[in-house]
Specification:
alpha+beta, CPE0013-like fold, binds iron/sulfur cluster, 38% strand, 3-stranded antiparallel beta sheet
Length: 120
């Protein structure tokens, strides 16, 4: 039996998920340890289409540092991470910036924005 342990990253509670391959259910996997349905969906997606909230840095002009830490507002499929990081590296922003300001809107049309992770 395939048993996979994963920590749910959907919310700060961080439930410890156990994902078991199960051909008798439509999704092909049974998830336990989750406190809500979002955790079940996360667990299945982690196995079938892994994705991550992406963090990185963009160029910053006019601030106290040369790069601004940023993060995506949602998960990015693993096969799009490299492309997103290239966009981060070629993006330039200008201080002042508030934490949470949108730096790149709807990156690669994935339905997630890239926001400032701190003020600058
Ligand atoms: S299973 Fe639900 S409550 Fe638990 S970490 Fe995931 S989203 Fe949060």
């Amino acid at each position: 039996m395939d048993i996979i342990k994963k920590k749910c990253k959907v919310c700060p509670i961080g439930c410890e998920l156990t994902i078991i391959k199960n051909q008798s259910v439509p999704s092909g996997y049974t998830v336990s340890g989750n406190s809500c349905n979002r955790g079940r969906d996360f667990g299945i997606k982690e196995i079938t289409e892994p994705s991550r909230v992406l963090t990185g840095r963009v160029l910053l002009k006019g601030g106290h540092m040369s790069r601004l830490p940023v993060k995506t507002t949602g998960v990015v499929p693993k096969d799009k991470i490299e492309e997103c990081l290239k966009i981060f590296n070629s993006t330039e922003v200008f201080a002042p910036i508030k934490k949470g300001d949108i730096v790149i809107e709807n990156i690669l049309e994935l339905g997630v924005d890239v926001v400032a992770a701190r003020k600058a």
